[in-house]
Amino acid sequence: MSPSRVLVLNSGSSSVKYQLLDMDAGRRLAAGLVERIGERTSLVRHTPLAPGGRTRERTGQVADHDAALKAMAGELAADGLGLDSPELAAIGHRVVHGGMHFTEPTVIDDRVLAEIERLIPVAPLHNPANLTGIRTAMTLRPDLPQVAVFDTSFHTTMPESAARYAIDVRTADEHRIRRYGFHGTSHAYVSRETARLLGRAPEEVNVIVLHLGNGASASAVRGGRCVDTSMGLTPLEGLVMGTRSGDMDPAVIFHLMRVGGMSADEIDTLLNKKSGLVGLCGDNDMREIRRRIDEGDEQAKLAFDIYIHRLKKYIGAYYAVLGRVDAVAFTAGVGENAAPVREAAVAGLEGLGLAVDGERNAVRGGGPRLISPDGARVAVAVVPTDEEMEIAQQTYALVGKNN
């Protein structure tokens, strides 16, 4: 039998998340996390997903990404799932920014590595960490296909009218300034699973996907292809997020420089790490914000109202872009778990065919499900995202084709 296991790696600046999946069986074999890399309090958490498997945790300094991936390899080996297994078909890597060059999953070679490195200026927080994980994995299994799956690739189908900013074309092209979008693996997976939930082919369905976590983005998906998305050159644009501002008048930046005396780095930190919900009310956990609202906290309520106002604007805008909407799908941590957010986001949009059923919306957990009333013109759904499975499926499909 051909090898059917795929290891999925998501390498961040100070963490490595991983999952091992058996694609023929359609199941996970193990999952884990190495975080706080480089600190004395590094944490290694590993969960074998076989029946009876128990999570193992240990702390102690993990010096760098090389040590982190070796720790991961050791944990997998302890469960008989080592990286030297002949059943391992490939390693799939999440890469945040692929620019316009990478429109689909790609087997990694020196040319691909160079292009990912060339894109560092437009993804300075993400691509360097992704590269580190790739290079380390290549030293552990140099004989194995390594595949890059790009957050941006699903959004490369956007028409130029949606992807272009209205600035001087020569300047934009010289500096690769355009709207790329992110969370692409999630939007691809959820839009496809929403079509499945409706019992229809993805090519027949128009979906607005709302990926709401600490980072948040919306997409308009027509017949399985993205035609617009809320994030832009970077993940800063769009919805109100946990710590990011989302859409804002660009002149605010000039004002803060000229009047506030702030540097570019200070403004970068403000907009990416000290804005959004945390900037508005001091909390970026939606559960805590809702608790404060229930206790009468006006600042928390204002933050929630601003969050919902922006979300509702994007639903309306993407309804107009698509012309016909078959479903609105909520996903990710907030989208899947915060019933008040889902209810508020569609409140008042009954004229567009959008509504939620109170009892269905209150149900927690479970798989993909409809929360709209029977007979609703537009389905409203909760569809848990599975970015690791999407990366594994794309990786396995590519390796299978190449073999």
Describe it for me?
- The structure is a single chain.
- With 403 residues, the protein is an alpha/beta fold.
- The protein has helices at residues 65-78, 110-118, 127-140, 160-163, 169-174, 184-197, 251-258, 264-273, 276-281, 286-294, 298-322, 332-337, 339-346, 358-362, 387-402, and strands at residues 5-11, 15-22, 27-35, 43-48, 56-59, 88-95, 106-107, 146-150, 206-212, 216-222, 225-229, 327-331, 369-370, 379-382.
- The chain contains 15 helices and 14 strands.
- The mean pLDDT is 93.
- Pfam families: Acetate_kinase.
- Belongs to the acetokinase family.
SSE class: alpha/beta
Describe the global form. globular
Measured between the Cα atoms of the first and last residue, the distance is: 13 Å
Strand coverage percent = 15-25%
What proportion of the residues is helical, as a percent range? 25-40%
Task: Write a brief structural summary.
The longest helix has 25 residues, at 298-322. The chain has helices at 65-78, 110-118, 127-140, 160-163, 169-174, 184-197, 251-258, 264-273, 276-281, 286-294, 298-322, 332-337, 339-346, 358-362, 387-402; strands spanning 5-11, 15-22, 27-35, 43-48, 56-59, 88-95, 106-107, 146-150, 206-212, 216-222, 225-229, 327-331, 369-370, 379-382.
Main features:
six-stranded mixed β-sheet; alpha/beta; single chain; globular; eight-stranded mixed β-sheet; 403 residues
Secondary structure: elements and pairs:
Elements: E1 5-11, E2 15-22, E3 27-35, E4 43-48, E5 56-59, H1 65-78, E6 88-95, E7 106-107, H2 110-118, H3 127-140, E8 146-150, H4 160-163, H5 169-174, H6 184-197, E9 206-212, E10 216-222, E11 225-229, H7 251-258, H8 264-273, H9 276-281, H10 286-294, H11 298-322, E12 327-331, H12 332-337, H13 339-346, H14 358-362, E13 369-370, E14 379-382, H15 387-402
Parallel strand pairs: 1-6, 6-8, 9-12, 12-14
Antiparallel strand pairs: 1-2, 2-3, 3-4, 4-5, 7-8, 9-10, 10-11, 13-14
